[in-house]
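Entry 12.
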Amino acid sequence: MWPRHTGDFSIFRIYANKNNDPAPYLKDNVPYKPKNYLPVSLKGYQKNNFTFVMGYPAATREYLPSYGDGLIAKKENPLKVELRRQRIDIINAAMDESHLVRIQYSEKAQRIANYWKKMTGESRGIGRIDAVSEKERFEQRFRLWADSIPERKSLYGGLFPAFKSAYEGYLPVDL
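Predicted 3D structure (tokens):
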């Protein structure tokens, strides 16, 4: 399940002079007419229609090694989820007591809840598809492939031991 997205947007009417050129404010200004624009249809869609897909302003963790997925699901996300739950509880209690605080903190509470939901779902998904074990199996096949030729072994043989060492370096930090 994707985190909640509000689809916020703004519409501006831009004014120009009668020649459609930028101009300082005058009573005679008219709405600007662009040469090109993205039409929006409310008719529904048909096969082979153009599709505009919105991207999400985040980074992917899809290509992390198994050590990274394990750290996220078992250490990082549980701590972050609990901290966000506490923040949400504090903010909700304050919003329940004051209409003004509700208005002031509504967006912040939704943003915190969105990340709470993302991290909860991320950890659940890693567990549901057994991503750590799946990646470990892939990494084992990669090691066999890399070790099968001396040139590859010299290039890639130290890759997963280095990943393991780097991720174990996080573990002394009490997350």
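Annotation: The chain has five helices and two strands. Strands lie at 15-16, 30-31.
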